[in-house]
Amino acid sequence: REAQSAGATRHVPEGLPSRIQHYIDGEFVDSADGDTFDVLDPVTNETYVLAAAGKKADIDRAVAAARRAFAEGPWPRMLPRERSRVLHRIADIVESRDARLAQLESFDSGLPITQALGQARRAAENFRFFADLIVAQADDAYKVPGRQMNYVNRKPIGVAGLITPWNTPFMLESWKLGPALATGNTVVLKPAEFTPLSASLWAGIFEEAGLPKGVFNLVNGLGEDAGDALVKHPDVPLISFTGESRTGQLIFGNAAPFLKGLSMELGGKSPAVVFADADLDAAIDATIFGVFSLNGERCTAGSRILVERPIYDEFVRRYAAQADRVVVGYPHDPKTEVGALVHPEHYEKVVSYIEIGKSEARLVAGGDRPEGFETGNFVRPTVFADVAPDARIFQEEIFGPVVAITPFDTDEEALELANGVRYGLAAYVWTNDLKRAHNFSQAIEAGMVWLNSNNVRDLRTPFGGVKASGLGHEGGYRSIDFYTDQQAVHITL
Ligand code: NAD
C-alpha cells in the first residue's frame, strides 16, 4: 500500500466563495432570517464557508419565482429546439470548466480528484443527452382508420422540486435538472447540506447559457427545514428525490396529502455474485472498483460479494491483498483512489459499522485509519469475509469503503442470499455460463444488473431500484415521462 506523507494536509482551492447563498429569481440572496450553517472541508473537518440556511420563507419565495417563470415566462412555451440549444450551451460550459468543477467538488466532498473530474464530465453529458432527446421526442398517435384518431400532447407540469444527496452532488443535480428543464418545467433545487459548493455554480452557468430568470432557483439548507418545506409546498406538483430510503419514506408520507408526482432513487446493498467459472482477474478488478470507487459512497456500490465455494478462499486472499493496495490519500492528489469521507457524522457512521463488523465476521483488510492521516475522515478500504446473511454489515447500507464477502454452494443459495435484503438497486453477476447469466439476472431482485461488467450505464436505459431502493424509473424517455403530463386527445372521424 502506498502511503502518502502527512505534509500538505490541506489543499484549499483559490477563489472559494466568501459565503454560499440561495439563488432566487435570478439573484443571489441570503436567508430571510439571515441564518447560516457551517460547511466543512472533509480533510480537516474545519469550517471553510458558511451557507445560507433556507427555511419555509425562502422556499416560498423560490417557488413563487419558479411559478411566475412557468406561468408567464418564455421557457415552457419555447420550441424544444430552442430549449435544446440552451441545454447544449450549458453542457459546453460545464465541459469547458470540468477541471475547476472537479477541484471544487473534490475539496467539498472528499472525492478523489480524478473521479470528481469524471463526474463533472458526466454532468455535461446528462445535459447534452436530454438536449438531444427532447428534439428527437415523438408523440404517440393511434388510428382506427375511418373511425377514430388519438394523439398525445406532452406538457410540462410546473415547478419541479429537486432534492439531492451529497455523494456525487453536481452530477446527481444534473441528472434531475437536465430532464426537468428540457421538458419546459421550472425548478427549485435543494442540494445536500454537506456539499453545497458545486450547486452554487449552476446559477452562473445557467445565466451564461441564457436560461431565463426564475426558471432555476436554488435554496440551500437542512433537509428538515428547506427540504421539508419544498415537499409540503402546495404549488410544487413534482418531487424528484435521491437519498436514503428512510428519508424517502418520510417524504412519501409528507407528499401524500398533496398527491404529488414522486420519483424516488433510494439506498442500496447491491450484491456482486461471482461464480467459480468467472474470469477471476476481471471479477476481482471490477468488484474492487465497484465498492471502493467514489469512496464507497455510491448508491450502486457492490457492497456484498457472494462467491462460489470452490474459488472462495482464493478470491478472499486475492481480494484482501488488492484492497490493501488501493491508494488512500488526499482528495486533490491524482494518485488517490479513496479520499476522505464527506463529513465527520458520516465517518462516525462508517467507523461504527466497521466495529460492528469486527464482532460479526472475519476482518481480512483495513478496519482502521490509514497511517499518516491523523485528522479528517480517512478510512482504509475494509474487507470482511465469512459474513453471515443475518449480520448487520450484510443487511444495512454502510455507504463507505466497506465490503462483506459471503460464500455460497448452489445457484439457489446464491439467489436467496442476493435477494435476502430489503434493498434492490443494482446487482453484478460474474459467470461464463451464458444461460446461467441470463436466467440469474432475470431472477434477481434489482433494478439494474451488470453481467460480467461494471457500472457503465447507457443514458437511454432505465435507472432505478425495486423494494426499498426506490419507486419509479428515470433515464431516457422515462425521465421525460416523469417531468411531463401526457394528455390524450380523442377524435371521432
Ligand atoms: P439523505 O436522505 O440524508 O438526504 C438526501 C437529501 O434529502 C438532502 O438534500 C437532505 O437535506 C434532504 N432531506 C433530508 N430530510 C428531508 C426531509 N425530511 N424532507 C425533505 N428533504 C430532506 O441522503 P444522503 O445521506 O444525502 O445520501 C446518501 C443516500 O442516498 C444513500 O442511501 C444512497 O444510497 C442514496 N443515493 C441513492 C441514489 C440512487 O440513485 N438510488 C444515488 C445516490 C445516492
Automatic annotation (TrEMBL):
Any one GO BP annotation for this protein: 4-hydroxyphenylacetate catabolic process
Keywords tagged on the record: NAD, Oxidoreductase
Keyword NADP: no
Stretch list, region Disordered: 1-16
Catalytic machinery residues: 265
Pfam families given in the database record: Aldedh
Residue ranges occupied by any Aldehyde dehydrogenase domain in the UniProt entry: 28-489
InterPro entries: Ald_DH/histidinol_DH, Ald_DH_C, Ald_DH_CS_CYS, Ald_DH_CS_GLU, Ald_DH_N, Aldehyde_DH_dom, DH_HpaE
One Gene Ontology term of the molecular function aspect: 5-carboxymethyl-2-hydroxymuconic-semialdehyde dehydrogenase activity
EC number(s) stated in the UniProt entry for this protein: 1.2.1.85
Gene3D superfamilies, sorted: Aldehyde Dehydrogenase, Chain A, domain 1, Aldehyde Dehydrogenase, Chain A, domain 2
PANTHER family cross-referenced by the UniProt entry: 2-AMINOMUCONIC SEMIALDEHYDE DEHYDROGENASE
Family: Belongs to the aldehyde dehydrogenase family.
Name of the protein described by the UniProt record: 2-hydroxymuconic semialdehyde dehydrogenase
Organism lineage string: Bacteria, Bacillati, Actinomycetota, Actinomycetes, Micrococcales
